[in-house]
Amino acid sequence: MTWVETLDTHWWWLIFAVMLGIGEIILPGIFLIWIAAAAAATGLLSFLLPIGTAVQMVIFALLCLLATWAGRRWYADNPVASSDPLLNDRTARLIGEIVTVVEPIENGRGRVRVDDGVWSCRGGDAPVGARVRIVGADASVLMVEPA
Amino acid sequence: MMTTFALGLSLLVIIYLAASIKVVRQGYQYTIERFGRFTEVAKPGLNFYPAFFYAVGRKINMMEQVVDIPGQEIITKDNAMVSVDGVVFFQVLDAAKAAYEVSELYVAIMQLATTNLRTVMGSMDLDETLSKRDEINARLLSVVDHATNAWGIKITRVELKDIRPPADIVNAMGRQMKAEREKRANILDAEGMRASEILRAEGEKQGQILQAEGRREAAFRDAEAREREAEAEAKATQMVSEAISSGNPQALNYFIAQKYVEAVSQFATSPNAKTILFPVEATQLIGTLGGIGALAKEALGSDGAPVSTPPPPPRRGPFGQAQSGQGQA
């Protein structure tokens, strides 16, 4: 590792950070950016403070953890808002809809017609043709109550 | 040495972070296991599960998916062999159940659909299988959907793609259809003929009725005419006989004689001059002349009996008209 010591190490850190930034763009996944940030911060520190290579690496490792933790905190505080949060959540879309019973609900179980399909449901007993409102879902079983 | 350790440490940190940050793409959910036990489901977005403690179990596709039911030979109720294939559309609604309640989700769905397709179609005869696709789809959907409830998936639809009866049966079906249509055409032809015959007969009947009515009307009127004629004749006869009874019977002789002479004169002008048919007894002619003579005498005021007897009354009307045979049935 003597070739690193022969150069200004902070440049290496900065070059490393840039490479990671490029990698982040090219490769899928959102983790290289934190390491790039840590590498850039390490480069800045090694430029400002006279510290050895090993210490720089330890600092880099710590900064990686710190950057990731900070990033996670930031992500938790600023969740990515989807323009359609119900995507891939078919049953959530159905909640509130009024549907017709096609197989009588007996002992709390029956089937209702939703659009052109038939779904199993649970709820108060109801005869065929009764109108019920979907109030929730457990996997593919809808919870209904009399509308 | 220390530098090498530090490098290793930084590498470890990088790899650890790489393993801990789980970015889940939209449309998928990952099941997360802690020491091999399922704990939670990672939703789309950035997730951080520290490595060593957590591991990604299964990556579940939450989008609606299509599974092909491979083509297969099915024997229908009436022992026809048909080859059938189809598709099943389904969507995972509960990633954990889909991951752990069933071992091979796709294979399970496919097998379930396949076996139940056999069951449903095996209970129908060939014509039903071809015409009741909707019913087959609905029954399959119901069965497969119920069976897969426990796996956290929703079977949205089951569709049969292709039902192919064997070639010879298809051929027979074609022939049957053609025969059916020909039969219908023939029946329609026959019905048309029948209707036209009936109409024609109706027309003829109507015509005959009208003709008969016309004849009846005419006969009525003829009869009326004859009655009127007879009345007139009776009246005329009465008048003549009254005239005769009140006047001289010789007047009658005068008329007859006149007619007679007229008739004879007609022979003279006849083109057939070679032979003259003269069916009259000369004596009668002479008698007629005698009658005329008697008339003359009377006219001159001499009293005397008629020289000869008047001719017998001819069988004709008083005015010499031949009776028309009309209406004399």
Structure description:
The complex is a heterodimer of chains A (147) and B (329). Chain A has 147 residues and is of the alpha+beta class. Helices cover 47% and strands 24% of the residues of chain A. In chain B, strand 2 (28-34) and strand 3 (37-42) form a beta hairpin. In chain B, the strands form three sheets. Chain B has a three-stranded antiparallel β-sheet with strand order 3-2-5. In chain B, strands 6-7-8 form a three-stranded antiparallel β-sheet. In chain B, helix 3 crosses helix 5 (133-148) and helix 7 (250-269) crosses helix 8 (282-300). By secondary structure, chain B is of the alpha+beta class. The model of chain B is unreliable at 320-329 (pLDDT under 50). Helix content of chain B is 56%, strand content 19%. Chain B has helices spanning 2-20, 95-100, 105-122, 126-131, 133-148, 167-246, 250-269, 282-300; strands at residues 21-24, 28-34, 37-42, 45-48, 54-61, 65-75, 81-92, 153-164. The relative contact order of chain B is 0.06. Chain B is rod-shaped. At the A-B interface, helix 4 and strand 3 of A face helix 1, strand 4, helix 5 and strand 8 of B.
Taken from the alpha-carbon principal axes, the silhouette of chain B is rod-shaped
Distance between the termini of chain A: 74 Å
Q: Beta-sheet strand percentage of chain A?
A: 15-25%
Helix-residue proportion of chain A: 40-55%
* SSE pattern of chain A: HHHHHEEEEE
Could you say which overall geometry of chain A the principal axes of the C-alpha atoms support? rod-shaped
Radius of gyration of chain A: 29 Å
CA radius of gyration of chain B is 62 Å
Assembly state of the chains shown: heterodimer
Low-pLDDT residue spans of chain A: none
- Tell me the strand order in the biggest sheet of chain A: 1-2-3-5-4
Biggest sheet of chain B: strands, sense, closure? 3 strands, antiparallel
Q: Which structural class fits the helix and strand makeup of chain B? A: alpha+beta
Tally of alpha and pi helices of chain B: 8
